[in-house]
Amino acid sequence: MGPAFTGPAVMGQVVMKHAVMRQEAFIARHQDEWAEFETWLVARGDSPRQARASHVQWRGLSDEDMPARYRRLCQQLALARSRGYSPVVVERLQALTQRGHAVFYRAAPPQWRRALEFFLADFPRLVRAQRGCLWAAAALFVVPLVGSFLAVLYSPELVYSLHDPADVAMYESMYDPANPERKLGRESGDDLAMFGHYIMNNVSIGLRTFASGLLAGLGTVYVLIMNGVMIGSVGGHLQGVGHGDPFWRFVAGHSAPELTAIVLAGAAGLRLGLDLIAPGRRRRVDALIEGGKVGARLCLGVFAMLVFAAFVEAFWSSIGWMPAGIKYAVGGVLWAITLAWLALGGRGRDGSDHAALPRDPSSARPRMVGPGDPAPATARQGRQRGTS
Distances from the Cα of 247 to the Cαs of 234, 243, 273, 350, in angstroms? Predict the structure, then answer.
């Protein structure tokens, strides 16, 4: 007998069976990652606030992997449509991609909210990430301050080696305890005018401290040491001549944000200097650009701290009749708030000083494939390698 004749109906059944088998293999291969994606959407994508609160306990897909997962899901949806897979499969993938799109392309938060998140959480985390430079800057500022204070107390004539005699006389009159009704820390000027003066003075010192880091970090080292020496010597002289009480009542209120901000500016400058002289495997220009970006973000926080310090200095610290106990109590509270903010700010959102979700919306959105992205495994005619 001759070979059996294969009719169109039999061929259709074979093709349909093969298509069903390919669809089943496709589902079996990818259903676990679809389930993981859906679990992430429920647990972390629907509510940013809930995502931040649960970041420490979360053990599923990392947030950084989700843009790539979303791109892969879109590829799988396109593949399912082109192969004519079951509407059930296509609708499920369509629903997942729509939910993913809603998460990645949700409206950005208002500018005021983003600014608030930066100052309350992102800035403290950025400060802690520079802890090495921070401790170095603190030592370069505090050690000369304490040393010059003690040196002038022990040898009062040293103050005239550091300050002009006319300036020393001006400091003594500004903190004269014989006139408790006058404004502390100033010779003239109303509160509002002095507020503007303090802003200009404080911000200029902070910017010089940071920008001088471009001199291989040596400029920042010099500025930190000299500021410490000048402040400490004035404090030691006033303490030695009996004008210590008005001086300490004046500096107690604004010292926390102002001195801390100067140290932070110094840390940013040291970071810039290190990137210049020790770029590592990076090109020197790339290291400087990266260090400049970090320093600029640090300077935003430093600027806000210095403006707040100027406000306190102008409208609170200068009050001469306020009892010392109240001044010291307010100063202690501000020191506690400042240190707690920098040490703990942003930790509730994650356990490793990284943002729970990317703060830059563009970094969380799936991008077109470029040199920095893993190349999708695709062949001609839309077929995915490794995707059955």
Answer: 9, 7, 35, 42
